[in-house]
Write a structure and sequence with these properties.
Elements: E1 12-16, H1 20-32, E2 36-40, H2 43-52, E3 57-61, E4 63-64, E5 67-68, H3 69-78, E6 85-90, H4 94-106, E7 112-116, H5 121-128, H6 134-145, H7 150-158, E8 162-171, E9 177-188, E10 192-194, H8 196-205, H9 209-227, E11 235-239, H10 242-245, H11 250-261, E12 268-273, H12 274-279, H13 281-293, E13 297-303, H14 309-315, E14 320-323, H15 325-328, H16 335-350, E15 354-357, H17 363-372, E16 376-377, H18 388-400
Parallel strand pairs: 1-2, 1-3, 3-6, 6-7, 9-11, 11-12, 12-13, 13-14, 14-15, 15-16
Antiparallel strand pairs: 4-5, 8-9, 8-16, 9-10
The chain binds ligand C2E and magnesium ion (2 copies).
One magnesium ion (MG) binds next to loops.
Protein name: Response regulator receiver modulated diguanylate phosphodiesterase
Domain EAL: 146-399
Pfam families: EAL, Response_reg
Length: 417
């Protein structure tokens, strides 16, 4: 039975289709689920609804008479109150549908999916189902997060609420742990868990990013030091944001920190995105080259997501390439993604770089990437990012499996952050 509708819990759906029969079918499914559908038979009607309301779901028919669904997607991307999910319904060929979904992802509408026409009502119900309860709480969370200030973050840093969690990196051929990536976490007493997508930009704006990164580096290198006696090749990766790449004093500060903690330079990998590296090429080159000369590894993060990936690859002294998880995620089901992943592996090897695949979520992807020659993997298949003590527990369980059982999910792994 659908939940009773109250103003707080109501799920609003905008159904956009120039065919009134299709529109009525989709709206009917929404009503049966207990949602509130609004119907728009044209781009202009949809634009009017978007200007006046907020929607949890939007279903879009790609061909809309005088306008097309792409124009509507562009308009939605510009609206402030983004829907939780967009469902594109179309009878056009699969490649166009896939490319449309990717375009929506690229403009920030990450939960966009497609359904073929003629529409399968069971599939539509599944696509519409997950957020019945989430809609109301999401509004609360969005409102709560928008209240966070730089001072809150400063207090969080000072009180130890911000910390480094570590996500393992695995040698895909042997299943051995090669190291980990340090990911910043903020468990705020006032706001609950806050994601790095929220607080890293805040740290940048509020001038806290250097202090935060130095803290991450210190925690990471202390963590590496505890692993080196058993894993001498253990490497911890730390993310560096754009403003720090133009800080030419950084290589010496990092070197001093390594000496103080007593960790060799090869135990540190610095991750930068190509967008970061290309923002101020001259200074970034200066900083990255000096870090490399000191023996620190440099990894190109989120490879393929910016506009100058190949140019950055050719010009900058990277030692590792990380294929973005948006390509890895669907690489077994989407031939276009597979082509990107396989050519990224080939090109990285031509530059004598190790290749890391981010976002491996199942054993099948692990094996396929291993067969392709991808060196290292990271993703929920192995573990989420863990606090240091939980990482040590996870490491013991994982290594106890031995190299022969790679990809075997027999041992329950710890997947909580
Ligand atoms: P990133 O450096 O590309 O980090 C990888 C992100 O992918 C992490 O998200 C990680 O939790 C997520 N991830 C890893 N495996 C999987 C998987 O199998 N499936 C899925 N769905 N996700 C997976 P997280 O921790 O939310 O971090 C997001 C971004 O925030 C990072 O992307 C990085 O750009 C930034 N970030 C995190 N910590 C720091 C930091 O200390 N300093 C800076 N400057 N940026 C940071
Ligand atoms: Mg990273
Ligand atoms: Mg990445």
């Amino acid at each position: 039975m659908p939940n009773p509708i109250t103003p707080e819990t109501a799920v609003d759906v905008l159904v956009v289709d120039d065919d009134p029969v299709q529109g009525a079918i989709v709206s009917g499914v929404c009503t049966k689920l207990g949602y509130r559908p609004r119907f728009a038979s044209s781009y202009h009607q949809a634009a009017e609804h978007l200007a006046n309301g907020r929607f949890d779901y939007i279903t879009i028919d790609l061909s809309l008479g005088d306008h097309d669904g792409i124009e509507l997607l562009r308009l939605i991307a510009q609206t402030e109150a983004k829907p939780r999910r967009i469902i594109i319904i179309s009878g056009c060929e699969e490649r166009i549908l896939n490319a449309t979904v990717r375009m929506a992802h690229a403009v920030g509408m990450l939960d966009t999916i497609s359904l073929p026409k003629p529409i399968d009502l069971a599939l539509l119900r599944v696509a519409l189902s997950p957020f019945q309860e989430a809609a109301a709480s999401r509004r609360g969370v969005d409102a709560r997060l928008s209240e966070i200030t730089v001072d809150d973050l400063r207090r969080g840093l000072d009180s130890g609420e911000v910390y480094a969690a570590f996500q393992p990196k695995i040698d895909l051929a042997t299943g051995k742990v090669t190291g980990c990536e340090a990911l910043a976490r903020w468990d705020s007493a006032r706001f609950g868990p806050v994601g790095p997508d929220v607080f890293i930009p805040l740290a940048e704006q509020g001038g806290l990013i250097k202090a935060m990164t130095l803290r991450m580096l210190r925690d990471s290198m202390t963590f590496a030091a505890s692993f080196l006696p058993t894993e001498p090749k253990f490497v911890v990766a730390v993310n560096l944001s754009a403003s720090l790449l133009s800080d030419t004093s950084l290589p010496e500060e990092v070197e001093r920190l390594l000496a103080e903690i007593g960790v060799p330079a090869r135990s540190l990998m610095i991750e930068v995105t190509e967008t970061t590296a290309m923002a101020d090429v001259g200074r970034a080159m200066d900083v990255l080259l000096r870090l490399r000369l000191k023996g620190i590894g440099i990894s190109m993060d989120d490879f393929g997501t910016g506009y100058s990936s190949l140019s950055a690859l050719a010009r900058m002294p990277f030692s590792e390439l990380k294929i973005d998880r948006s390509f890895v995620k669907d690489c077994l089901t989407d031939a276009d993604m597979w082509k990107i992943v396989s050519s990224s592996v080939a090109i990285a090897h031509q530059y004598n770089m190790k290749v890391v695949a981010e976002g491996i979520e199942d054993a099948a992807t692990w094996h396929a990437l291993d067969a392709l020659g991808c060196d290292i993997g990271q993703g929920f298949e192995f573990s989420r990012a863990l606090r240091s003590d939980a990482f040590v527990d996870w490491y013991r369980t994982w290594t106890a499996r031995g190299p022969a059982v790679r990809g075997d999910a027999a041992i329950p792994l710890r997947r909580e952050a």
